[in-house]
Amino acid sequence: MNINIENLTKSYGGQRAVDNISFKVNTGEILGFLGPNGAGKTTTMKMITQFIELEEGDIRINGSSIKSGFDKKHIGYLPEHNPLYTDMAVMDYLGFCAGLQGVPKSQIKERAVQMVKLCGLDVEKHKKINELSKGYRQRVGLAQAMIHDPEILILDEPTTGLDPNQIVEIRELIKKMGRQKTVILSTHILPEVEATCDRILIINKGKIVADGTASTLRKQAEGQQILQVKIEGTESNLIADGLRALGDVKEVTIKDMNTNRFEIQSMPEAKTNTSIFNLCVQKNWILTEMIPYETKLEDIFRDLTVN
């Protein structure tokens, strides 16, 4: 199911938590929804899931406005603060959730068993939820979000409290589900976004500040090439002077005089690899390293969200 967010706005008092945002998520797409605390992510997710009412704008799912009474059974939701009935056993809780979501009685046990296996809860399935670790409680929350096989999954910080092995397992699970479902995933673990999501949307102070794939956002942020190089054959200062004389080089920084390591920043839209290589051949210098600096998602996030 496609989701269309149209001019969505939500205010609390005099503060706009979500400020006239619009975007689309297609079936089979996993959208990474990023932003600092208080940016408006959770508020947006709660409006999509109809936990809170719309103020302005609209949300259309497969062309139908949720204002006209969209059936919530098509949506699975894992909130940021995972609410669980901790005095219930895992299997009982999942059966209870399945019933609430309209799963036929004849299929409830089968669905609960499937979710237990899918989310790695088999060893813990007969324990009460209050006896589980935080990581396993998170798995129970994920299982309840999927118990009715929804076509849309809204996951707010789904890997909170999981250890590295569990994170990898849940990541693979989300990627597998994302082939058939529409998934919006919010997280602060940026490497996980790159590994899991097809597209990234960054929100700050209620407004969308970036939208695209990780590679697209990098290209937009880079603007100019940065190289880490190591050149041997003469003194660092002489090498630096030679590099600065190149027409496509904007700035040269000596990073280590003892090992002749340099950071070279190109002119906008220029690529300096060839000219550096030709200079080394001309001067009989030995070029032992040339490593392009790749803009990290963390750098992009910081640049777009730091006040």
Strand runs, count: 14
What is the count of structural domains? 2
Helix percentage: 25-40%
The CATH superfamily title of the largest domain: P-loop containing nucleotide triphosphate hydrolases
Structural class: alpha/beta
Query: Low-confidence segments, ≥5 residues, pLDDT <50?
Result: none
- Read across the widest sheet, the strand sequence of neighbours is 6-7-8-3-9-10
SSE arrangement, N to C: EEEHEEEHHHEHEHEEHEHEEHEH
CATH topology of the largest domain: Rossmann fold
How would you describe this structure to a colleague?
The chain is of the alpha/beta class and 307 residues long. The chain has 2 domains: 3-212, P-loop containing nucleotide triphosphate hydrolases (Rossmann fold), CATH 3.40.50; 221-299, Alpha-Beta Plaits (2-Layer Sandwich), CATH 3.30.70. Helix content is 34%, strand content 29%. It has helices spanning 41-48, 90-100, 105-118, 134-146, 164-177, 190-196, 214-222, 236-244, 273-283, 297-305, and strands at residues 3-12, 15-25, 30-34, 56-61, 64-65, 75-78, 152-156, 182-186, 199-204, 207-212, 226-232, 249-256, 261-266, 286-292. Helix 2 (90-100) packs across helix 3 (105-118) and helix 3 (105-118) packs across helix 4.
Could you provide a short overview of the structure?
With 307 residues, the chain is of the alpha/beta class.
Protein topology:
Blueprint: E1 3-12, E2 15-25, E3 30-34, H1 41-48, E4 56-61, E5 64-65, E6 75-78, H2 90-100, H3 105-118, H4 134-146, E7 152-156, H5 164-177, E8 182-186, H6 190-196, E9 199-204, E10 207-212, H7 214-222, E11 226-232, H8 236-244, E12 249-256, E13 261-266, H9 273-283, E14 286-292, H10 297-305
Parallel strand pairs: 3-8, 3-9, 6-7, 7-8
Antiparallel strand pairs: 1-2, 1-4, 4-5, 9-10, 11-13, 11-14, 12-13
Helix pairs in contact: 2-3, 3-4
